[in-house]
Write a structure and sequence with these properties.
heterodimer; A: 289 residues; mainly alpha; MetI-like fold; 12 helices; 2 strands; B: 272 residues; 2 domains; 80% helix; globular; transmembrane (chain B); Phosphate transport system permease protein PstA (chain B)
Chain lengths: 289, 272
C-alpha cells in the first residue's frame, strides 16, 4: 500500500514537471498565433505589396506603407554590426588569448555589467552624449541613423564578446600548441587557426547580435528621431519597425492598431529567419566538438 | 596566405585598441550617468520628483510577482529536462521553444501582453498584466540557468542518494535542489535584473501613470518607464540622470550578488 502511494507521488511529480516544461511551448505558440492572427488580416486589407513596399506611413490618411521602417531597421542593424562586431570579436580574442588571467576575469565581469545595463539607460546615455555630438559635427539635431547605430553597436558588444570568447576558448589546445610549435606567432595562430576553427560560434554570436539589434526598441526610439521616411544620409532621422509599434500603440485603434500588429509580424519573420540561421550554426558548433 | 611582420604588429595593435574601446565604453557610460546622477545632481530637485518613489515600489511589485510566477515553473521545467526527459523530439521541442522565447524582441512580448492579458483577459493596464507578460520573458533565463546549475550536481551524489534507498522525488528535492541552490539563485537574480530594466513590454501592459498602484489590478509606471518618459518628453535631464543612476546601482548590486553566488558554485565544484 505504502509503496503504491510512493509510486503515485512519483507519477504526479513527473506530470507536474512535464507541465512546467510544456509552458515554454505553449508560450511561443500563443505569442505567434496572437500576433499573426491580428496582423495577417490587416496585411490583407492593406495589401501585401502596399504594406511592404509602400513608402508612405500616414495612419490618419489610411496609408500604411512600411517600407521606410523595414529599411530603417535593416540600416541600423547593419550599422550596429559594422561597429560592434569587429570590436567585439577582437575584444573576445584579447580576453581569451592575450590578456593575463586577472585582466581576463576583470574583462568578463565588465562584459556582464554591459549586458545588464537596461536598454532605456543606453538610450538615455545616447541622447545625452552621442546625439549632441552628432548635432555638433553634422548638424540637423543629432537624432539619426548614425546615433542609433552607435548605441546599438555598443549594446550588441556583450553578446558578440561573450559568445565569441567562449567559442575561441573552446578550440582544442592541441591546435594552438601545434601551430605555435610549427613556429607560427601568436597573432598568426589567432587569425589563421583559432578564428577559423571557432567560426561557427563567432557566426552564431553575430546572428544573436543581429537579433538583439533588430529587436531593440527603447534605446532606438530615444536617439533615432523616428521620422517614417527613408534616410538618405547617416545623420538623418530614421524609424525602425520596433519604434513604429512602440510609438503608436498607445493611441492606435481599428485598422491602425492591426497595422501595428502587422508590423510585429514583419519583425517576427526577421526573427524566425535569424533563428533558423542560428540553429544551423549551433548544429555546426556541435559537430566540431 | 601569410601575414607580414608589420601586418602582425598592426593586428596586435587592433586587438589592444578594441579591448581599450570596450573598457572605455563601460567606464564612460557608468561614469557619465553616475557622476551626473549622483554627484552633480541637485538633491533638492531630485527628491522633489514625486514619481520616483511610487515607480520604485511599482517596480518592486512587478519584480516580486513575475519571479513568484515564473520561478516554480522555470525550475520545474529545468528539473524535468535534466532529470526525467529522455533526449528526443519532444525534449528538443521544449529546448527549441525556450531558445525561441529568448530571441523574441521585448516589444513583441508587449504586443502579446497587451492583446492577451490587457484586452482579452480584461486585466486592463495593471501591475498584474505587466508581471504576467514579464514572467513569460524571464522563463528562458530561469530554465537555462537552472539547468546549468542542475548539471553541475555530481552524479555520485545522485547515485549515492538512490543507493541509500531514497526515492527519485526525495533525491531531487532533498539532494539535488539544495546542492544546486546557489546556481538557481543566480537564475532568479538574473531575471530580477531583466525585469527591472525592461521598458517596452511593461509600458504597453502596466501603463504609464506616475503613481503608486493601489493593488496588482491597478496601473502604474516602473522606474525604467519613468526614465523613458523623462528622457522622451524632455521633462528633465537632471531627474533622468538621477533615475538612470538608481537603475545602474541596482544592476551593479545584482552583478555583485550573482558573482558571489557564482564563486560559491565554483568552490563547491572544486570541493567535489
Amino acid at each position: 500500500m505504502k509503496l503504491n502511494r510512493k509510486k503515485i507521488y512519483e507519477k504526479i511529480n513527473e506530470r507536474l514537471l512535464l507541465i512546467c516544461g510544456l509552458i515554454s511551448i505553449i508560450a511561443v505558440l500563443s505569442i505567434t498565433i496572437f500576433i499573426f492572427s491580428k496582423g495577417i488580416p490587416a496585411i490583407k486589407e492593406i495589401g501585401l505589396k502596399e504594406f511592404i513596399f509602400g513608402e508612405e506611413w500616414q495612419p490618419t490618411g489610411g496609408r500604411f506603407g512600411l517600407y521606410p521602417m523595414i529599411v530603417g531597421s535593416l540600416y541600423v542593424t547593419l550599422g550596429a554590426v559594422m561597429i560592434g562586431v569587429p570590436i567585439g570579436i577582437l575584444t573576445a580574442v584579447f580576453i581569451s588569448e592575450l590578456a593575463p588571467k586577472r585582466v581576463a576575469s576583470f574583462y568578463r565581469r565588465l562584459v556582464e555589467l554591459l549586458a545588464g545595463i537596461p536598454s532605456v539607460v543606453y538610450g538615455f546615455f545616447g541622447l545625452a552624449t552621442i546625439v549632441p555630438a552628432i548635432d555638433l559635427i553634422f548638424g540637423g539635431g543629432g537624432n539619426s541613423l548614425l546615433a542609433a547605430s552607435i548605441i546599438l553597436g555598443i549594446m550588441i558588444l556583450p553578446t558578440v564578446i561573450s559568445i565569441s570568447e567562449t567559442s575561441i576558448k573552446s578550440v582544442p589546445m592541441e591546435l594552438r600548441e601545434g601551430s605555435l610549435a610549427l613556429g607560427a606567432s601568436d597573432i598568426y595562430t589567432i587569425f589563421k587557426v583559432l578564428i577559423p576553427a571557432a567560426r561557427s560560434g563567432i557566426l552564431a554570436s553575430i546572428v544573436l547580435a543581429i537579433g538583439r539589434a533588430i529587436g531593440e526598441t527603447m534605446a532606438v526610439i530615444l536617439v533615432a528621431g523616428n521620422t517614417p521616411l527613408i534616410p538618405k544620409a547617416l545623420a538623418e532621422r530614421i524609424r525602425t519597425l520596433t519604434a513604429n509599434i512602440a510609438l503608436e500603440m498607445g493611441y492606435a485603434y481599428g485598422l491602425h492598431q492591426n497595422a501595428l500588429f502587422a508590423t510585429g509580424v514583419i519583425l517576427f519573420v526577421f526573427i524566425i529567419v535569424l533563428n533558423i540561421l542560428l540553429m544551423k550554426f549551433n548544429k555546426k558548433v556541435g559537430e566540431n566538438k | 596566405m601569410r601575414i607580414t611582420k608589420k601586418g602582425e604588429e598592426n593586428l596586435r595593435l587592433y586587438i589592444y585598441i578594441s579591448a581599450l574601446i570596450t573598457l572605455g565604453i563601460v567606464l564612460w557610460i557608468l561614469g557619465h550617468i553616475l557622476i551626473n546622477g549622483i554627484i552633480k545632481v541637485d538633491w533638492k530637485v531630485a527628491l522633489e520628483d514625486k514619481a520616483i518613489l511610487p515607480s520604485l515600489i511599482n517596480t518592486f511589485y512587478i519584480v516580486l510577482l513575475s519571479v513568484l510566477i515564473t520561478a516554480p515553473i522555470g525550475i520545474g521545467a529545468a528539473i524535468y529536462l535534466n532529470e526525467y526527459a529522455k533526449e528526443g523530439k519532444f525534449v528538443s521541442l521544449i529546448r527549441y521553444s525556450t531558445q525561441s522565447l529568448a530571441g523574441i524582441p521585448s516589444i513583441i512580448f508587449g504586443l502579446f501582453g497587451m492583446i492577451f492579458f490587457v484586452t482579452n483577459l480584461k486585466l486592463k493596464w495593471s501591475i498584474l498584466s505587466g508581471a504576467l507578460t514579464l514572467s513569460i520573458m524571464i522563463l528562458p533565463i530561469i530554465i537555462r540557468t537552472t539547468e546549468e546549475a542542475l548539471k553541475t550536481v555530481p552524479i555520485t551524489l545522485k547515485e549515492g542518494s538512490l543507493a541509500l534507498g531514497a526515492s527519485k522525488i526525495e533525491t531531487i528535492y532533498k539532494v539535488i535542489l539544495p546542492t544546486a541552490l546557489p546556481g538557481i539563485m543566480v537564475s532568479i537574480i538574473l531575471s530580477v535584473g531583466r525585469v527591472i530594466g525592461e521598458t517596452a513590454a511593461v509600458y504597453l501592459t502596466a501603463g504609464m501613470v506616475p503613481r503608486l498602484a493601489s493593488s496588482i489590478f491597478d496601473s502604474g509606471r516602473t522606474l525604467s518607464v519613468h526614465l523613458y518618459i523623462l528622457a522622451k518628453e524632455g521633462i528633465s535631464f537632471e531627474l533622468a540622470y538621477f533615475t538612470a543612476s538608481i537603475l545602474i546601482i541596482f544592476i551593479l548590486i545584482i552583478n555583485i550578488i550573482s558573482n558571489c553566488l557564482g564563486k560559491i558554485v565554483n568552490k563547491k565544484l572544486k570541493g567535489n
